């Protein structure tokens, strides 16, 4: 029997799901959703097609003690929902700041899941940040609404490279001061 090492990362409860650290059993659903072009093309870092081993590599990186990116699964299995409905992360930056990122499985789009996850992560503030940033592609206004609903303020326009699109894509950048 193989046992998993328990990572020191906060579990955050919401009314519909918990945000919990990734575990090796997430690999199948992670591959399924991340390999969907609709998901990959709305992120900067997920390639499409998803190469073999990419999901395992993400899980391994998220479990390192020295990680700078903290990743949580949106898990509703205790409430009769899916074990992995999306991911949300905080990428540590300097000056006590983090960048928040998230994606949701297509079956869960337009259900408020992303809004609930962002609000829960901001309220928990597990890294004790003073500020959180986020960027969304301008062709994804739903993600922009998620941020404004969580009281992020619009900072301005920029652009970011999308691996799945193999192109620079216009973005909107947001900021949320905490504390």
Describe the SSE topology.
Blueprint: E1 12-13, E2 18-21, H1 27-34, H2 37-40, H3 54-62, E3 69-75, E4 86-93, E5 97-104, H4 113-124, E6 131-137, H5 141-149, E7 153-162, E8 167-177
Parallel strand pairs: 5-6
Antiparallel strand pairs: 1-2, 2-3, 3-4, 4-5, 6-8, 7-8
Q: How does this structure look, described?
A:
- The protein is α+β, with helices and mostly antiparallel strands.
- The chain has helices at 27-34, 37-40, 54-62, 113-124, 141-149; strands spanning 12-13, 18-21, 69-75, 86-93, 97-104, 131-137, 153-162, 167-177.
- A hairpin with a 4-residue loop joins strand 7 and strand 8.
- Helix 4 crosses helix 5.
- The chain is globular and about 40 Å long.
- The N and C termini lie far apart (44 Å).
């Amino acid at each position: 029997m193989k046992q998993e090492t328990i990572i020191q990362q906060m579990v955050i409860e919401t009314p519909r799901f918990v945000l919990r650290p990734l575990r090796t059993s997430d690999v199948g659903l992670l591959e399924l959703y991340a390999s969907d072009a609709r998901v990959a093309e709305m992120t900067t870092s997920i390639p499409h097609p998803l190469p073999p081993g990419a999901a395992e590599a993400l899980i391994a990186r998220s479990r390192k003690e020295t990680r700078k990116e903290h990743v949580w699964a949106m898990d509703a299995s205790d409430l009769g929902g899916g074990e992995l409905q999306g991911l949300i992360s905080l990428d540590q930056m300097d000056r006590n700041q983090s960048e928040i990122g998230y994606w949701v499985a297509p079956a869960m789009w337009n259900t408020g899941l992303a809004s609930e996850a962002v609000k829960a992560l901001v309220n928990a503030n597990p890294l004790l940040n003073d500020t959180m940033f986020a960027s969304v592609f301008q062709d994804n206004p739903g993600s922009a609404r998620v941020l404004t609903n969580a009281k992020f303020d619009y900072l301005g326009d920029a652009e970011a490279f999308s691996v799945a699109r193999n192109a620079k894509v216009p973005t909107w950048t947001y900021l949320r001061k905490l504390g």
